[in-house]
Amino acid sequence: MDYVYGPGRNHLFVPGPVNIPEPVIRAMNRNNEDYRAPAIPALTKTLLEDVKKLFKTTTGTPFIIPTTGTGAWESALTNTLSPGDTIVSFLIGQFSLLWIDQQQRLKFKVDVIESEWGQGANLDELASKLAADRTHTIKAVCIVHNETATGVTNNLAAVRKLLDDYNHPALLLVDGVSSICALDFRMDEWGIDVALTGSQKALSMPTGMGFICASPKALEASKTAQSARVFFDWNDYLKFYKIGTYWPYTPSIQMLYGLRAALDLIFEEGLDNVIARHSRLGKATRLAVEAWGLKNCTQKEEWHSDTVTAVVVPPYIDSSEIVRRAWKRYNLSLGLGLNKVAGKVFRIGHLGNLNELQLLGCLSGVEMVLKDVGYPVKLGSGVAAAATYLQNSTPMIPSRI
Ligand SMILES: *Cc1c(COP(=O)(O)O)cnc(C)c1O
Questions:
Q1: Do 253 and 327 belong to one domain?
Q2: Where in this chain does the record put each Aminotransferase class V domain (predicted)?
Q3: Distance, CA 381 to ligand 1 centroid (Å)?
Q4: Which atom of ligand 1 approaches the CA of 15 most closely?
């Protein structure tokens, strides 16, 4: 390992884990508490209510589980499905690939709809599968809202519409790990049955909390779902919800206070402002990429992601070298290209508690690295494109102007 110490702040621009804001860090710096004393259930009650707001659901039942996004996936699947059930799943990048692998290892029959990496979910193919499935053997449609490996955002409203058009009862299970709390996400309106995310992405917390919301239909399905589950069993949570103590096993006290602080920041800014901020930072990043003369891995504008941008490098450059050098020379952490796009793309994460000047710092670092590795870029070109857009469009925090 060629580790070298670097002074100053690390510029953390991987698409998760992301920066943790100071108020959240401070809120977590505290002693343990007895989680059966009245303070923790009282706190938990407000947390569960507020988490529902992030998912834009009033009818969903939230679960906060000590796990990561991967555990939240498992919770969604095992509580609603039985081994051998048919699932339709979209393969468009590394995270959808990993979820499909989990689905197969949990013994579901996975009907995979594959697209080229850089494209969104192929909804025409979903439409033909739904049309052909007159006997309703498809029990669930699983989709990653925002594919973090390629920077592709799928259209969930369109998926819902297809299910409705074909009057198909399949459950809609959505990975919102790099979207919820950063991109427009409407659990109730889009008829999502299970939505999930993890703490270290847009919520800007440490890793270790999974957030899952189940629709009434998903809860109903959990009553008959035969998949083996213990740690992730919703029913254990529901029992403790009923008696008002909320936790079937020990929660992380520090993370609960961290979550309170994180939610307070989000609601103080306003969830819709948070989403609008991501949209501005996403657009600014794409303008910089364009100014550098480089291509976005995402092949169509409708799929552009406002939380992560995967930048395609010319064939004579190894994108891993860019990531290595960014960290070593500039203390800038960028995301690697994963699997099929390894060496071909690097990723800029622009999600979570982040502002314009932080992003411009990152873009400036990327320019220097690009030049270092032999790509002919004019220093300042991407920064200028991004800054011009940011300065001239609606400010990030309207109330501050
Ligand atoms: C990060 C990520 C995951 C995996 O989450 P872990 O917390 O690493 O288990 C799953 N899906 C998406 C879209 C992600 O971005």
A1: no
A2: 12-313
A3: 32
A4: 15
Q: What is the per-residue DSSP string for 222-251?
A: HTT-----STT-HHHHHHHHHHT---SS--
Two tokens, residue 344: 């071909």
Instruction: Tell me if 211 CB under 6 Å of ligand 1.
Output: no
Mind giving me the DSSP string for 318-364? -HHHHHHHHHHHH-EEEBPP-GGGTTTEEEEE--SS--HHHHHHHHH
Full residue range of the structural domain in which residue 187 is found = 22-267
Say yes or no: 191 and 310 in one domain: no
Q: Is residue 104 located within the same domain as residue 169?
A: yes
Distance 339 CA to ligand 1 centre (A): 15
Residue identifier of the C-alpha nearest atom 12 of ligand 1: 177
The verdict on 103 and 246 lying in the same domain is yes
In short, whether 190's Cβ falls inside 6 Å of ligand 1 is no
Token pair in block for residue 272: 């819709």
- pTM metric for this prediction: 0.97
For the beta carbon of residue 68, count every other beta carbon within 10 angstroms.
17
- pLDDT tens per residue across all 401 residues of the chain: 577 788 899 999 999 999 999 999 999 999 999 999 999 999 999 999 999 999 999 999 999 999 999 999 999 999 999 999 999 999 999 999 999 999 999 999 999 999 999 999 999 999 999 999 999 999 999 999 999 999 999 999 999 999 999 999 999 999 999 999 999 999 999 999 999 999 999 999 999 999 999 999 999 999 999 999 999 999 999 999 999 999 999 999 999 999 999 999 999 999 999 999 999 999 999 999 999 999 999 999 999 999 999 999 999 999 999 999 999 999 999 999 999 999 999 999 999 999 999 999 999 999 999 999 999 999 999 999 999 999 998 776 666 66
Domain boundary pick from 220, 241, 267: 267
Give the CATH number of the domain where residue 310 resides.
Answer: 3.90.1150.10
